[in-house]
Protein 1
Amino acid sequence: MANSKYEYVKKFEMDDKLPACNWIIVRIDGHKFHQFSDDHDFDKPNDENALNLMNSCAVSMVEHFPDIVFAYGVSDEYSKILSLSVSYFTSLYVIKWKDFFPHKGLKETPCFDGRIVLYPRAKIVRDYLSWRQVDCHINNQYNTCFWMLVKSGKTKKEAQERLKGTLAKDKNELLFQQFGINYDKLPDIFKKGSCVYKDTVEETLKPDNGGNPVKRQRQRVTVGHFNIIDDRFWDEQPNILREN
Ligand code: ATP
Ligand code: ATP
Ligand code: MG
Ligand code: MG
């Protein structure tokens, strides 16, 4: 665009550089996935295939962008550290769709919104992730009750009324008494969401000529449904949020 009378339009562009020394969170969330999940008959409240599709996109993201150190996802939402990612995520979602839903065509055009938040300290990143995981648990508990009530014949409005004002223990009680479901026994992918991160593992290769075992450090991408609120996971993975 150099050297033309039109060049001035460049001046309207905002600086897209982020201030240094921050942890960068990119939150990616499916746009109108309430509708999208209805259009594609997702199991309610949790379609495991759809969650695994999201996780697979996250794994590819972590493999593709070396700066992403950790990703956490629930429902149609994925939070990532470091950016450049919403469109790549969307492309992955479309390309991988057939691997997770081989008998279900993609009928609508999925799109995701993304936002960036900067946190100056690892402690706040931990709190951010705790907030998302608490939200995952609260939503999942509510949605599990809601959809069990609907599947047992209540209208959506009746199910909503029934759940109004109930506390966590009331919901657990309702699931157990009425549907024989022990909430604690539900899969962790539903209750805790998904974590994706790079891990260094030590591989033992064939012994060398002298018969000594040869060890090599290898990076691999791990997917798990851990408790990321307590210290334990972070103590075991000190490299993820290391500050220097
Ligand atoms: P917005 O465009 O504002 O994000 P939305 O319709 O995507 O609106 P969210 O609050 O992001 O609303 O909620 C995502 C919705 O997508 C859930 O309420 C649920 O209905 C549906 N959904 C997403 N993933 C799954 C899944 N794996 N299984 C079942 N339903 C899902
Ligand atoms: P950035 O990630 O910063 O946008 P970029 O590599 O995409 O970097 P641009 O300045 O956006 O660089 O330029 C786009 C480049 O992509 C062009 O220089 C050209 O090499 C290539 N390109 C894009 N579209 C076409 C096309 N239709 N045919 C051939 N080459 C194309
Ligand atoms: Mg959404
Ligand atoms: Mg969402």
Protein 2
Amino acid sequence: MCGIVGYVGQQNATPFLMDGLKRLEYRGYDSAGVAILDAGRISIRRAVGRLSALEDSLEKAPILGKPGIGHTRWATHGAPTETNAHPHTDDSGKIAVVHNGIIENYQELRAELTAKGHRFTSQTDTEVIPHLIAQELKDGAADFLTALRNALARARGAYAVGAVFADNPDTVYAARHGSPLIIGLGENEFFIASDVPAILNRISKVIYLNDGEVATLTPRGVRVFSLDGTEVQPEIQTVTLSAEAAERAGFETYMLKEIHEQPRVLRHLLEKNETLGDEIGLSADYFRKLNRIMIVACGTAYHAGMYGRLLLEQFTGLAVETDLASEFRYRDPKIDPGTLLIPVSQSGETADTLACIRMAREWGCKALAICNVPGSSVVRESDATIFTEAGPEIGVASTKAYTAQQMAFALLALHIARARDTLDDEEIAECMIDLRKTPDAIHRVISRKESIKAVADKHHDGPSSLYLGRKFNYPTALEGALKNKEISYQHAEGYAAGEMKHGPIALINEYLPVICICTKTRDEVYDKMLSNMKEVEARHGRIIAVATEGDQHVKGIAEDILYVPEIRDEFSPIINVVALQLLAYYAAQARGTDIDKPRNLAKSVTVE
Ligand code: G6P
């Protein structure tokens, strides 16, 4: 969702702002703009659509000057028009603000300010901020920082804010409450950004602003204050990511690069966490006494949570539930301190997932996050974190973060099983041997991408497709369908294969691709899947199977097969999903969509 950048340094701000905004494009947006200071005045440029529109405009009529702030807007309040695009200003045009989040009491504030003579030009909630600041200055605030602090103290909701003021022409102001914002420390230059990858090529140290903090950035340095004006000593952290991690590295898209990174990501995670120990922040004794686990997440992370539930139930004997964070937060669940909450999030900034952590804390539960972004809100608000360490995921459709979340669940389930003595050492060792096979197995799936592409090319043009799976691979079916709809815009539905007869069977005809995940298992699920496939075949559905290498039964039924290496049932979803990621990828390519930045989607959903 909305992306924020800001630059303070000796150079003209435009190139830095545009470079940062391009690196934030993946978050999802529909308009963009910059505000740049030049000789004591603020120049603003905004444009609807892709960043190239703003870039063209700035090429035709450049704005020279420094410092500056920039923004990519994902419309919430008001359509994606130039007038609604950020930055927004006060009546005098001396204050410009960019904002990510939602000011919930904006209507009330707007009415109050309008009554005082302020004129509003947009439909956004954001526009109240520059007007509030202006009013604070008019009412006698000692300086801009005080006016900003006072204005924000009146705003309800979530925000990350960047601001400039024409009368303080060397300063960029920043503030955060509930929406992500970081400060980058470079060589004689300072940045604000919604995330680290946006400025990774310019900095090696960052300050993660805390909720309720305001900062000033000048060429002389960075100062951080709490909302009451007390100066605080920020913690400066060294960035361990390499700049290349956020580049495409020769791949045609970030998504394809990230699919290819999966073997490396999983190998790394395995090496690092092979024996998850007390360092995850919760003791073996805590896990022994636990009586329930509640997993909450959104989107792809929710599917990882569904898979995690099956593993945890099987290995630990605990009662485990998974829910969508957006549903869980409005339920009335019977949770007590004996419940562990596991929030799963790639970005660590998803608003609904964060809300669940806050609820769980009120009930006295601990939260153990599975998260990809150090310093993110989910990490900071949880008691402990298993980092997925997949590196920046730029493609909007999640791939490597998903398999890393699956791996994190596998390692956690084995860790808890050890603590609770529900698996013996030998069983755990055998599981570890099989888990260690997953990176090579994924590599093998990827090496067959040309044959997966051929299947996608054959089936991509229908209006719809159905994905079926059972038990461990029911979440795989949901995730495969999600990947397909996210990037190819083909309607796709994931279903538990056993539910097919209760509805989706009515959809089956000679045109419908039915993707059946039917890898070999030790239990009866495989035979049941074969029966379901027979039922599809009898109705002339077009079966694409994900099957184990050498499987003869599936061969006799399916029209096309995506082969995957054999592995223990419990870990097959980690491999099977990669075949479906590639199937969706090549379908999207054949349909000519914008794979890394699919329409309407945001990578990080920071509002409810
Ligand atoms: C958005 C993204 C998805 C992601 C979901 C949850 O919808 O497009 O890829 O799975 O948010 O995000 P999180 O960062 O919490 O995993």
